[in-house]
Amino acid sequence: MLTIKDVARLADVSIATVSAVMNGKGGVSPELAQRVQQAMEALDYHPNQVARSLKVRQTHTIGMVIPDVTNPFFTDVMRGVEDEARRNGYSVIFCNANEDPELERRQLSTLFSRRVDGVLLAPTDSLAAQDRLTRRRFPLVFFDRIPTDFSGTAVVTDNLEASREAARHLIGLGHQRIAVIAGRLNLSNGLKRLEGFRQALQEAHLPLREEYLRRGDFQLEGGYQCGLELMGLPDPPSAIFCCNNKMTLGLMRALGELRIPCPERVSVLGFDDFDWAASFSPRLTTIAQPAYEMGKTAVELLLSRLGTRKGSPGGSEDTIVTLKAALCVRDSTAPPCTAPLTGGGFSP
Fold this sequence. Notes:
Helices cover about 45% and strands about 15% of the residues. By secondary structure, it is an alpha/beta fold. Helix 8 (about 160-170) runs parallel beside helix 9 (about 190-205). The chain has helices spanning about 5-10, 15-20, 30-45, 50-55, 70-85, 100-115, 130-135, 160-170, 190-205, 220-230, 245-260, 290-305, and strands spanning about 60-65, 90-95, 120, 140-145, 155, 180, 215, 240, 265-270, 285-290, 320-325, 325-330. The strands form 2 sheets. It has a 6-stranded parallel sheet, with helices on both faces. The chain has a 6-stranded mixed sheet with strand order 7-6-8-9-10-12, with helices on both faces. It has 3 domains: about 5-45, 434 Repressor (Amino-terminal Domain); about 55-155 and about 290-320, Response regulator (Rossmann fold), CATH 3.40.50.2300; about 160-290, Rossmann fold, CATH 3.40.50.2300. Strand 6, helix 9 (about 190-205) and strand 7 (about 215) form a beta-alpha-beta unit.
């Protein structure tokens, strides 16, 4: 088995020099570092990462728990995480919690057993995950969602302002009968999106009618069922704001089955943009979150906590970074139709 001694012998340097190059320490000239790298490549030598991690108490591995890997938003966040981690010499272990708090607990236990240096987490419930990690004093950064009464480090979208902008767009088109399909209200993103929507309606002196408020829990089936219920009302809405992309897809499915054209009879505005939103017919008007940037920022925050980011002293100071979203106006929103739509079906 090859050892560090073989690399040192081929490069004609000391073992200490090889160790310094492998561990990224300074004090080695570029010429010597290049000789060490060339020797490692010539021998196809790969350091024993397990032994190395036991020695330095770091694995240079980040754990990431995603609540729903089928959601395109989270796949974009993952790309940002992976790219930034790789740039800093870290690898990432991805876990999917499938919106299940118990599965999330097991995934976190797996990451602990793998001795990851820190965790990125979009929680599935309000407090359990935070309590569990806080007790361990484990380096942690939340992304996208934060629990109620949160204290810690996180990167989130300005959901409040983004939802206000969405509602104002619909109001500006002339809509007054505006419904909302909300997400989970025990987490910050679901709560803030509903709150921003309410605020915009209040600014315009429009009521949020009780029958126009539905909860789809961020799931495709939830958006579908809420769409059927809303369009089955005696006085259905002329516009619907969906608080995430999967519920928007479910709503569009419901409208298709009911043969209710969008936006001719009902406008649809979704939260979260994704690659195929512009390929729909109609092309979907959406709120675009900076998902890739969120992933990149989450890694930067975690490495700052670990003290491994260049120029960072490390530490445990609480930081919440808020990113701005953008309204992408396409074809699924339009001024309201003046002809009545009653009884939950399409009236030609």
